[in-house]
Write a structure and sequence with these properties.
Protein name: Ferritin-like domain-containing protein
Helix content: 55-70%
InterPro entries: Ferritin-like, Ferritin-like_SF, Pigment-catalase-like, TAT_signal
Strand content: under 5%
Structural class: mainly alpha
Number of strands: 0
CATH topology of the largest domain: Ferritin
Number of helices: 15
CATH superfamily of the largest domain: Ferritin, core subunit, four-helix bundle
Shape: globular
CATH architecture of the largest domain: Up-down Bundle
Order of helices and strands: HHHHHHHHHHHHHHH
Largest sheet: none
Radius of gyration: 35 Å
Protein backbone atom coordinates (compact mmCIF):
# COMPACT_ATOMS: atom_id res chain seq x y z
CA UNK A 1 0.00 0.00 0.00
CA UNK A 2 1.26 3.45 -0.92
CA UNK A 3 1.84 5.71 2.09
CA UNK A 4 -0.35 8.84 1.66
CA UNK A 5 1.95 10.81 3.96
CA UNK A 6 5.07 10.11 1.91
CA UNK A 7 6.62 12.70 -0.38
CA UNK A 8 6.31 12.53 -4.17
CA UNK A 9 9.52 10.54 -4.61
CA UNK A 10 8.52 7.91 -2.03
CA UNK A 11 5.01 7.58 -3.48
CA UNK A 12 6.51 7.14 -6.94
CA UNK A 13 8.82 4.38 -5.74
CA UNK A 14 6.11 2.60 -3.75
CA UNK A 15 3.64 2.74 -6.63
CA UNK A 16 6.15 1.48 -9.18
CA UNK A 17 7.23 -1.34 -6.88
CA UNK A 18 3.69 -2.50 -6.16
CA UNK A 19 2.60 -2.38 -9.80
CA UNK A 20 5.69 -4.15 -11.13
CA UNK A 21 5.60 -6.81 -8.42
CA UNK A 22 1.89 -7.46 -9.07
CA UNK A 23 2.41 -7.79 -12.82
CA UNK A 24 5.42 -10.06 -12.39
CA UNK A 25 3.64 -12.32 -9.93
CA UNK A 26 0.64 -12.63 -12.22
CA UNK A 27 2.96 -13.73 -14.98
CA UNK A 28 5.12 -16.06 -12.89
CA UNK A 29 4.70 -19.67 -11.81
CA UNK A 30 1.15 -19.13 -10.51
CA UNK A 31 -0.20 -17.64 -13.75
CA UNK A 32 -3.57 -18.80 -15.07
CA UNK A 33 -5.60 -18.70 -18.23
CA UNK A 34 -4.73 -16.14 -20.85
CA UNK A 35 -1.36 -15.18 -19.36
CA UNK A 36 -0.20 -18.78 -19.56
CA UNK A 37 -1.26 -18.91 -23.19
CA UNK A 38 0.59 -15.66 -23.81
CA UNK A 39 3.70 -17.16 -22.28
CA UNK A 40 3.50 -20.11 -24.66
CA UNK A 41 3.26 -17.86 -27.69
CA UNK A 42 6.27 -15.80 -26.62
CA UNK A 43 8.20 -18.98 -25.89
CA UNK A 44 7.46 -20.23 -29.40
CA UNK A 45 8.72 -16.99 -30.87
CA UNK A 46 11.96 -17.27 -28.94
CA UNK A 47 12.38 -20.90 -29.96
CA UNK A 48 11.87 -19.95 -33.60
CA UNK A 49 14.51 -17.24 -33.25
CA UNK A 50 16.91 -19.79 -31.78
CA UNK A 51 16.49 -21.98 -34.87
CA UNK A 52 17.70 -19.20 -37.11
CA UNK A 53 21.43 -19.49 -37.64
CA UNK A 54 22.14 -15.86 -38.42
CA UNK A 55 20.71 -12.39 -37.85
CA UNK A 56 21.83 -9.25 -39.61
CA UNK A 57 23.14 -6.34 -37.59
CA UNK A 58 23.69 -2.80 -38.73
CA UNK A 59 27.18 -3.45 -40.04
CA UNK A 60 26.14 -6.57 -41.89
CA UNK A 61 27.73 -8.89 -39.32
CA UNK A 62 26.20 -11.88 -37.60
CA UNK A 63 24.40 -12.08 -34.26
CA UNK A 64 24.22 -15.53 -32.71
CA UNK A 65 22.68 -16.72 -29.42
CA UNK A 66 25.13 -16.90 -26.54
CA UNK A 67 25.80 -20.13 -24.68
CA UNK A 68 23.90 -20.78 -21.47
CA UNK A 69 25.83 -20.34 -18.22
CA UNK A 70 22.84 -20.86 -15.92
CA UNK A 71 21.79 -23.76 -13.71
CA UNK A 72 18.05 -23.07 -13.82
CA UNK A 73 15.39 -20.33 -13.82
CA UNK A 74 16.20 -19.34 -10.23
CA UNK A 75 19.81 -18.76 -11.23
CA UNK A 76 18.70 -16.56 -14.14
CA UNK A 77 16.33 -14.53 -11.96
CA UNK A 78 18.97 -13.95 -9.29
CA UNK A 79 21.46 -12.95 -12.00
CA UNK A 80 18.98 -10.35 -13.28
CA UNK A 81 18.16 -9.26 -9.72
CA UNK A 82 21.83 -8.47 -9.05
CA UNK A 83 21.94 -6.25 -12.14
CA UNK A 84 18.77 -4.46 -11.04
CA UNK A 85 20.27 -3.88 -7.61
CA UNK A 86 23.31 -2.35 -9.28
CA UNK A 87 21.23 -0.01 -11.44
CA UNK A 88 18.96 1.03 -8.57
CA UNK A 89 21.89 1.86 -6.29
CA UNK A 90 23.73 3.62 -9.11
CA UNK A 91 20.84 6.03 -9.69
CA UNK A 92 20.11 6.49 -5.99
CA UNK A 93 23.66 7.56 -5.15
CA UNK A 94 23.93 9.88 -8.15
CA UNK A 95 20.60 11.59 -7.52
CA UNK A 96 21.58 12.22 -3.91
CA UNK A 97 25.16 13.33 -4.60
CA UNK A 98 24.65 15.45 -7.70
CA UNK A 99 21.25 17.03 -7.17
CA UNK A 100 18.64 18.44 -9.53
CA UNK A 101 20.33 21.75 -10.35
CA UNK A 102 23.61 20.17 -11.46
CA UNK A 103 21.76 17.70 -13.67
CA UNK A 104 19.75 20.46 -15.30
CA UNK A 105 22.92 22.37 -16.12
CA UNK A 106 23.99 19.56 -18.44
CA UNK A 107 21.24 20.66 -20.85
CA UNK A 108 20.64 24.05 -22.40
CA UNK A 109 17.80 26.22 -21.11
CA UNK A 110 16.02 25.78 -24.43
CA UNK A 111 16.12 21.98 -24.27
CA UNK A 112 12.57 20.67 -23.70
CA UNK A 113 13.95 17.75 -21.65
CA UNK A 114 15.64 20.02 -19.12
CA UNK A 115 12.79 20.71 -16.69
CA UNK A 116 11.59 17.13 -16.37
CA UNK A 117 15.02 15.54 -16.45
CA UNK A 118 15.52 14.97 -12.71
CA UNK A 119 12.03 13.57 -12.30
CA UNK A 120 12.60 11.11 -15.14
CA UNK A 121 15.81 9.90 -13.53
CA UNK A 122 13.90 9.39 -10.27
CA UNK A 123 11.35 7.34 -12.19
CA UNK A 124 14.08 5.16 -13.69
CA UNK A 125 15.56 4.61 -10.23
CA UNK A 126 12.13 3.57 -8.94
CA UNK A 127 11.77 1.15 -11.84
CA UNK A 128 15.05 -0.54 -11.00
CA UNK A 129 14.06 -1.02 -7.37
CA UNK A 130 10.70 -2.42 -8.44
CA UNK A 131 12.38 -4.81 -10.86
CA UNK A 132 14.73 -6.11 -8.15
CA UNK A 133 11.86 -6.72 -5.74
CA UNK A 134 9.70 -8.38 -8.38
CA UNK A 135 12.51 -10.70 -9.41
CA UNK A 136 13.07 -11.65 -5.79
CA UNK A 137 9.38 -12.48 -5.38
CA UNK A 138 9.52 -14.65 -8.50
CA UNK A 139 12.51 -16.53 -7.08
CA UNK A 140 10.51 -17.28 -3.94
CA UNK A 141 7.57 -18.47 -6.05
CA UNK A 142 9.89 -21.04 -7.59
CA UNK A 143 11.08 -22.16 -4.16
CA UNK A 144 14.46 -20.47 -4.41
CA UNK A 145 16.40 -18.06 -2.20
CA UNK A 146 16.56 -14.48 -3.53
CA UNK A 147 20.11 -13.20 -3.78
CA UNK A 148 20.99 -10.41 -1.36
CA UNK A 149 22.06 -6.97 -2.59
CA UNK A 150 25.85 -6.87 -2.91
CA UNK A 151 28.08 -3.98 -1.91
CA UNK A 152 28.79 -1.47 -4.67
CA UNK A 153 31.52 1.08 -5.26
CA UNK A 154 30.92 3.54 -8.10
CA UNK A 155 33.74 5.90 -7.22
CA UNK A 156 33.49 9.42 -8.59
CA UNK A 157 31.09 8.46 -11.38
CA UNK A 158 28.10 9.20 -9.15
CA UNK A 159 29.40 12.68 -8.34
CA UNK A 160 29.77 14.13 -11.83
CA UNK A 161 26.53 14.60 -13.83
CA UNK A 162 28.08 14.25 -17.29
CA UNK A 163 30.12 11.18 -16.41
CA UNK A 164 27.13 9.66 -14.66
CA UNK A 165 24.79 10.09 -17.63
CA UNK A 166 27.31 8.57 -20.02
CA UNK A 167 27.98 5.62 -17.71
CA UNK A 168 24.28 5.15 -16.98
CA UNK A 169 23.57 4.72 -20.69
CA UNK A 170 26.31 2.09 -20.89
CA UNK A 171 25.05 0.22 -17.82
CA UNK A 172 21.49 0.22 -19.13
CA UNK A 173 22.75 -1.13 -22.45
CA UNK A 174 24.56 -3.93 -20.62
CA UNK A 175 21.32 -4.74 -18.80
CA UNK A 176 19.37 -4.93 -22.06
CA UNK A 177 21.92 -7.28 -23.61
CA UNK A 178 21.97 -9.38 -20.42
CA UNK A 179 18.22 -10.01 -20.59
CA UNK A 180 18.54 -10.80 -24.30
CA UNK A 181 21.27 -13.31 -23.57
CA UNK A 182 19.43 -15.05 -20.73
CA UNK A 183 15.82 -15.01 -21.99
CA UNK A 184 16.15 -17.92 -24.45
CA UNK A 185 17.14 -20.20 -21.57
CA UNK A 186 14.18 -19.44 -19.29
CA UNK A 187 12.29 -22.73 -19.03
CA UNK A 188 9.13 -21.47 -17.33
CA UNK A 189 7.23 -19.62 -20.05
CA UNK A 190 5.12 -17.76 -17.50
CA UNK A 191 8.29 -16.13 -16.16
CA UNK A 192 9.51 -15.37 -19.65
CA UNK A 193 6.62 -12.96 -20.34
CA UNK A 194 7.30 -10.49 -17.49
CA UNK A 195 11.06 -10.90 -17.94
CA UNK A 196 10.74 -9.70 -21.51
CA UNK A 197 8.54 -6.88 -20.22
CA UNK A 198 11.37 -5.73 -17.95
CA UNK A 199 13.78 -6.09 -20.87
CA UNK A 200 11.75 -3.66 -22.98
CA UNK A 201 11.57 -1.12 -20.15
CA UNK A 202 15.34 -1.29 -19.75
CA UNK A 203 15.63 -0.57 -23.46
CA UNK A 204 13.45 2.53 -22.99
CA UNK A 205 15.75 3.69 -20.21
CA UNK A 206 18.72 3.29 -22.53
CA UNK A 207 16.98 5.24 -25.27
CA UNK A 208 16.16 8.14 -22.95
CA UNK A 209 19.71 8.34 -21.61
CA UNK A 210 21.14 8.28 -25.11
CA UNK A 211 18.93 11.24 -25.94
CA UNK A 212 20.20 13.15 -22.91
CA UNK A 213 23.77 12.44 -24.05
CA UNK A 214 23.07 13.63 -27.57
CA UNK A 215 23.53 10.16 -29.07
CA UNK A 216 21.28 8.27 -31.44
CA UNK A 217 18.98 6.07 -29.38
CA UNK A 218 18.73 3.23 -31.91
CA UNK A 219 22.28 2.63 -33.22
CA UNK A 220 21.75 -0.98 -34.34
CA UNK A 221 19.26 -2.84 -36.50
CA UNK A 222 19.65 -5.86 -34.22
CA UNK A 223 21.24 -5.63 -30.78
CA UNK A 224 23.62 -8.44 -29.89
CA UNK A 225 23.03 -10.38 -26.64
CA UNK A 226 25.77 -10.80 -24.07
CA UNK A 227 26.68 -13.92 -22.15
CA UNK A 228 26.71 -14.02 -18.37
CA UNK A 229 30.50 -14.01 -18.24
CA UNK A 230 30.66 -11.00 -20.57
CA UNK A 231 28.14 -9.06 -18.48
CA UNK A 232 29.81 -9.89 -15.18
CA UNK A 233 33.18 -8.83 -16.54
CA UNK A 234 31.72 -5.42 -17.48
CA UNK A 235 30.03 -4.77 -14.13
CA UNK A 236 32.75 -6.31 -11.94
CA UNK A 237 34.51 -2.95 -11.33
CA UNK A 238 31.37 -1.69 -9.56
CA UNK A 239 30.70 -4.76 -7.38
CA UNK A 240 32.89 -5.15 -4.31
CA UNK A 241 34.39 -8.61 -4.10
CA UNK A 242 33.66 -9.64 -7.69
CA UNK A 243 36.93 -10.58 -9.33
CA UNK A 244 37.54 -10.01 -13.02
CA UNK A 245 38.94 -12.90 -15.11
CA UNK A 246 42.76 -13.05 -15.05
CA UNK A 247 43.95 -14.28 -18.45
CA UNK A 248 47.62 -13.87 -17.52
CA UNK A 249 47.30 -16.19 -14.53
CA UNK A 250 45.70 -18.87 -16.69
CA UNK A 251 48.51 -18.52 -19.23
CA UNK A 252 51.16 -18.92 -16.54
CA UNK A 253 49.54 -22.13 -15.35
CA UNK A 254 49.57 -23.56 -18.86
CA UNK A 255 53.26 -22.73 -19.30
CA UNK A 256 54.16 -24.34 -15.98
CA UNK A 257 52.65 -27.68 -16.95
CA UNK A 258 55.58 -28.66 -19.25
CA UNK A 259 58.54 -28.08 -16.91
CA UNK A 260 58.80 -31.62 -15.48
CA UNK A 261 58.35 -33.55 -18.74
CA UNK A 262 61.80 -32.71 -20.24
CA UNK A 263 63.50 -33.98 -17.11
CA UNK A 264 61.91 -37.40 -17.63
CA UNK A 265 62.69 -37.59 -21.35
CA UNK A 266 66.20 -36.18 -21.83
CA UNK A 267 67.24 -35.08 -18.37
CA UNK A 268 70.05 -36.28 -16.15
CA UNK A 269 68.19 -39.25 -14.66
CA UNK A 270 67.31 -41.03 -17.93
CA UNK A 271 70.93 -41.20 -19.23
CA UNK A 272 72.06 -42.72 -15.97
CA UNK A 273 69.91 -45.79 -16.69
CA UNK A 274 70.97 -46.14 -20.34
CA UNK A 275 74.62 -45.06 -20.71
CA UNK A 276 75.63 -43.76 -17.31
CA UNK A 277 78.44 -44.85 -15.02
CA UNK A 278 76.64 -47.84 -13.49
CA UNK A 279 75.79 -49.63 -16.76
CA UNK A 280 79.39 -49.69 -18.11
CA UNK A 281 80.56 -51.21 -14.86
CA UNK A 282 78.48 -54.31 -15.62
CA UNK A 283 79.62 -54.62 -19.28
CA UNK A 284 83.29 -53.54 -19.56
CA UNK A 285 84.21 -52.34 -16.10
CA UNK A 286 86.78 -53.67 -13.68
CA UNK A 287 84.55 -56.32 -12.12
CA UNK A 288 83.46 -57.96 -15.37
CA UNK A 289 87.02 -58.63 -16.69
CA UNK A 290 87.75 -60.55 -13.52
CA UNK A 291 85.26 -63.19 -14.69
CA UNK A 292 86.19 -63.00 -18.43
CA UNK A 293 89.88 -62.18 -19.06
CA UNK A 294 91.07 -60.82 -15.72
CA UNK A 295 93.49 -62.29 -13.24
CA UNK A 296 91.13 -64.71 -11.59
CA UNK A 297 89.60 -66.15 -14.74
CA UNK A 298 92.93 -67.04 -16.46
CA UNK A 299 93.71 -69.30 -13.57
CA UNK A 300 90.75 -71.48 -14.60
CA UNK A 301 90.77 -70.75 -18.36
CA UNK A 302 94.14 -69.62 -19.86
CA UNK A 303 96.20 -68.87 -16.73
CA UNK A 304 99.18 -70.66 -15.29
CA UNK A 305 97.32 -73.71 -14.15
CA UNK A 306 95.65 -74.34 -17.50
CA UNK A 307 98.90 -74.13 -19.51
CA UNK A 308 100.34 -76.87 -17.47
Amino acid sequence: MVNPNADDSERLTDSATINTRRKFMIGSAGALGGLALGGASVGSAVAQADDEEESESEDGGETEPVESEFEDDVDILNYARTLEFLEARFYAEALENIGEEAFMETLSEEDPLRDGMFGELETIQAHEEAHAEALGAAVEELGGEPVEEPEFDFGGVVEDPVEFLETAAEIEDVGVSAYAGAAPYIENENILVPALGIHSVEARHTSYLRTLNGDTNFPNVVDAPRSRSEVEELVAPFIVGMEEPDDEEEGDEEEGEGTDAPEEENGTDAPEEENGTDAPEEENGTDTPENGNGTDTPENGNGTDTSN
